[in-house]
Amino acid sequence: MSVMRIAIVNPKAEKWLKDLEELNLIAIEDTSVNIVTNALKKFFSKEDTTPASTPTPSLEEIIKDVDIVRRERREKKEFHFKN
Fold first, then answer.
1. Do residues 28 and 18 lie in contact, with contact meaning Cβ atoms separated by under 8 Å?
2. Scanning 62, 66, 68, 81, which has the fewest C-beta atoms within 10 Å of its C-beta?
């Protein structure tokens, strides 16, 4: 068995390939899912590259920062509407 990678240029070719697959002459594997899965595995398998001097913030710290940013945006909008 040999494996080939084929780029389909004409949509009719895809129908022909599916017909060949139905006749059990070829097997088609959707590699787009594999590419995404492999990329995610590679991304999440990397070791933590953040320096030890910058600790990961806690959930409470993140919530506090988000609240500050939201408050600042609200105040900016309110100031803009008053003027």
1. yes
2. 81
Per-residue CA distances from 76 to 44, 62, 63, 83 (Å): 38, 21, 20, 11
pTM comes to: 0.38
Q: In the chain, what are the helix, strand and coil shares in percent, each to the nearest 5?
A: 60, 0, 40
Q: Which residue has the higher pLDDT, 66 or 55?
A: 66
8 Å CB contact between 35 and 29: no
Phi, psi of 10 (to 5 degrees): -110, 130
State how far the Cα of 32 lies from the Cα of 29, in Å rounded to an integer. 9
- Are residues 36 and 45 in contact, defined by beta-carbon separation less than 8 angstroms? no
**Alpha carbons 11 and 7: distance in angstroms, whole number:** 11
